[in-house]
Design brief:
- 20% of the residues are buried.
- By secondary structure, the protein is α+β, with helices and mostly antiparallel strands.
- It is globular, with a radius of gyration of 13 Å.
- It starts with a strand and ends with a strand.
- The chain contains 2 helices and 4 strands; from the N terminus they run βαβαββ.
- It has a 4-stranded mixed beta sheet, with no helix packed on it.
Length: 98
């Protein structure tokens, strides 16, 4: 288990049917006091997914919550590429269990 787990642009290259399994595996690497950083291209659920790399929705990124992680912060921003690209930067930590 790791204190910091970076997940940068991996989920978006996986077909949607494989993402839940990948999220489970990535979540397992986060130490009890650790942090997960997810960076991905973003879109609204009503927007087309496009071509690979497929963009993710906030709902897809929230799949990590089903494995005990809690959102600490979520940045939704447009980068300064040409053309500009929407991105999400999600920081998560493990929930404490009573």
């Amino acid at each position: 288990m790791l204190d910091i787990v970076p997940e940068s642009y991996t989920l978006q290259v996986l077909p949607p049917g494989l993402r839940a399994k990948a999220v489970r595996g990535i979540s397992a690497f986060v130490a009890p006091s650790g942090t997960l950083l997810v960076i991905a291209r973003g879109r609204e659920p009503s927007d087309p997914g496009g071509k690979m790399p497929w963009t993710l929705t906030k709902e897809e990124m929230s799949l990590f919550e089903t494995h005990g992680l809690k959102e600490v912060s979520l940045e939704d921003f447009i980068d300064n590429e040409d053309p500009p690209v929407r991105r999400f930067r999600l920081l998560m930590g493990l929930c404490e269990v009573d």
